[in-house]
């Protein structure tokens, strides 16, 4: 007898999501990668607005390609009773419901967790919002940059002169990952108890959690953590240092590493005995002198030469790469991390998710065209597809 093919962890689970932008779509894409069926509910007047942030991926938005592979697109008008009825019928047969509409909007449309779970107590219902229910900012707009600012992340990111937001939507990503984690935990508990869950995830609280040591440092020292650029408030040397043709990031986190750096890598053993640099506490106290001493030595090598010397000595270091370098990264290629997926207009490369199961690969589905699955889902819900499509309550592909 042949052993059955291994299943993805969420095979057989269905998720209905009224979602847009980044946070909730990232959460549900995580679930679809793990095998879940995800029905993405979109507006009839163009769908998820992330579809049109740009059209750089052969006519499809980069955000949308990143976040929506493997999903089924259902375009219905939730302002119409018939449209809401379709989604409720699908939720009645689903395991999970996720939404990130404006605060209070889901409840006003009849998709509040309490209403949905009244007759479907095994449902896992997740509300993802900017600031959570209650509090003075409950109704405020919650774009990623704004939440980064409110969470203090911008306040500690950048240089001493210039605060900046992170180069990726950190608050969206943090809350999306916690949302997916919560769904998995709720389904695991449901397997033991039979009961679903009502879950709330706040972008603000997810981002403040990621503030971590900086938050505790401020609370118990009374000092705002400084913006350090590439440097580190508690470690030296820890920064970018010049080479003949570029720069290298070097981070030495202990005193033995310092001695190895200056003797085995930089051929400057005199620095090992300099009393200003013998311990990390002293190096931080004399950071400017330490950085200058290291920079004087690193500038004697090319970037490639220094990179090789640092790697051979086991010193933590990295080249500052541009995104094009990452796309061609030999580590990702050697580990076979790229797959082909379909989009509305072309076949494109997509990166496998970072969680790798030994016995089964993530489901790398195609990116759905707007309303691509509307007719099939209307029929699955048991309604007159032609009637809803002809009246504009539902929409198919453009």
TrEMBL record:
Keyword Transferase: yes
UniProt keyword annotations, A-Z: Transferase
Native source organism of the sequence: Amycolatopsis silviterrae
GO molecular function, one term: transferase activity
Gene3D superfamilies: Crotonobetainyl-coa:carnitine coa-transferase, domain 1, formyl-coa transferase, domain 3
UniProt-listed PANTHER family: SUCCINATE--HYDROXYMETHYLGLUTARATE COA-TRANSFERASE
Origin: domain of life: Bacteria
Pfam families: CoA_transf_3 (PF02515)
The UniProt record lists the keyword Isomerase: no
Protein name (record): CaiB/BaiF CoA transferase family protein
């Amino acid at each position: 007898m042949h052993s059955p093919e291994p299943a993805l962890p969420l095979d057989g689970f269905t998720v209905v999501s009224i979602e847009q932008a980044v946070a909730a779509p990232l959460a549900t894409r995580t679930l679809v990668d793990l095998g879940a069926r995800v029905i993405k509910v979109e507006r009839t007047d163009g769908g998820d607005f992330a579809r049109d942030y740009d059209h750089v991926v052969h006519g499809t938005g980069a955000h949308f390609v990143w976040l929506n592979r493997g999903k089924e697109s259902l375009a219905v008008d939730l302002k119409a009773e018939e449209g809401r009825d379709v989604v409720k019928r699908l939720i009645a047969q689903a395991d999970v419901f996720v939404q990130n509409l404006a605060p209070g909007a889901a409840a006003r449309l009849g998709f509040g967790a309490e209403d949905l779970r009244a007759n479907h107590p095994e449902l896992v219902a997740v509300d993802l919002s900017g600031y959570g229910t209650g509090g003075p900012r409950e109704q405020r707009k919650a774009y990623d940059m704004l939440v980064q600012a409110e969470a203090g992340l911008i306040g500690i990111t950048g240089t001493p002169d210039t605060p900046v937001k992170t180069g990726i939507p950190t608050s969206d990503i943090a809350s999306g990952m916690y949302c997916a984690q919560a769904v998995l935990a709720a389904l695991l508990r449901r397997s033991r108890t039979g009961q679903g869950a009502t879950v709330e995830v706040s972008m603000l609280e997810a981002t403040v959690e990621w503030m971590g040591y900086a938050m505790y440092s401020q609370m118990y020292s009374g000092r705002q953590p400084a913006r350090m650029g590439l440097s580190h408030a508690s470690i030296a040397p820890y920064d970018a240092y010049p080479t003949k043709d570029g720069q290298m990031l070097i981070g030495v986190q202990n005193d033995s590493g310092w001695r190895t750096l200056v003797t085995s890598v930089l051929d400057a053993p005199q620095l090992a005995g300099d009393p200003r640099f013998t311990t990390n506490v002293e190096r931080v106290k004399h950071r400017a002198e330490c950085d200058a001493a290291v920079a004087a030595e690193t500038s004697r090598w090319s970037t490639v030469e220094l990179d090789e010397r640092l790697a051979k000595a086991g010193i933590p270091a990295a080249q500052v790469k541009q995104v094009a370098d990452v796309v061609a990264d030999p580590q990702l290629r050697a580990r076979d991390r790229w797959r082909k997926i379909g989009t509305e207009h072309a076949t494109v490369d997509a990166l496998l998710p970072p969680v790798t199961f030994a016995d089964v690969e993530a489901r790398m589905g195609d990116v759905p065209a707007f309303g691509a699955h509307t007719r099939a889902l209307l029929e699955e819900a048991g309604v007159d597809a032609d009637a809803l499509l002809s009246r504009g309550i539902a929409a198919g592909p453009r």
